[in-house]
Amino acid sequence: MFGKDRLPTLLQYDPNVRFIQVTEEGTILLTALDAAPEEKNEEDDAMRQMAEEAAREVENETGSWPSGTAMIQTLAKTTRESSFSTPGHETSDGFLLSGPPPLLRYHIGDSGGIKSFEEMLSTLKEHGFNPLDDPRVQDLEARGVLRKMPFAWVFGRAHWCVSLYGANVFVDQVMVGMEQAEIAPNVTGKFVLSVEDDEDKNPRVALDVELSAHLWQSEDKIRSKVASVVKQQLLRLNSEYCNYVPAHSQEPIVHLYKHGDTVMFPPGVKHKW
Description:
Elements: E1 9-12, E2 18-22, E3 27-32, H1 42-62, H2 69-76, H3 80-83, E4 88-90, E5 96-98, E6 104-115, H4 117-126, H5 135-142, E7 151-156, E8 161-164, E9 167-170, H6 171-178, E10 187-197, E11 203-211, H7 219-237, H8 239-244, E12 253-257
Parallel strand pairs: 11-12
Antiparallel strand pairs: 1-7, 2-3, 3-6, 4-5, 6-7, 8-9, 10-11
């Protein structure tokens, strides 16, 4: 349904306060907008008024507006007159947004996607499930409180993890294994994380590891130790790996490379994880 073999984090969002785009690379671009006028409440206005009065007192005593107050007011709460006097604004890449300029625009880098409420219903129906058949949902719709807002989902940052059997394996979790005393003297700490099929066509974590310039053990022993220790740390640190990955696929496949290998680990070049 989402184009992967695992479930993402799925949420429903209000497009009036969150504008979400999907880039050509399939990653999420999030723009946080100020709340719509009807969502401003008396508490918000009271807080803004108190901040303005306190700032004016400081200005009367010192002759200058207190540093940071204007910025805080702009980021946290803005007045209806200033925020909604214009119908909209255009982003740097040509999208027209309603309301005031965005408070924050952030390319979170997580892979994911978006669907409108109607598109999500249609997709669910194609998979044999119609939420509108549920009496509880029908009751919400009858009372006019059903949130017919779009959906967004994220899978995490693809450049920093791999996925198998529905489990995410992150670079920093593998790093913990590579830093263990049994391994560290024989490796540089550089490795490339991927997923590779074993002889039985079962997916397993694969590690391309750079050896130290001076080895204290044979390569066969190092390969075995890396696989064993990294597996041990993944089972300790990663509950998804422990519960989702079958026992026969839990031990990583390890490939060792000479120190300064010109293809995998060229000297002076930042390697990819």
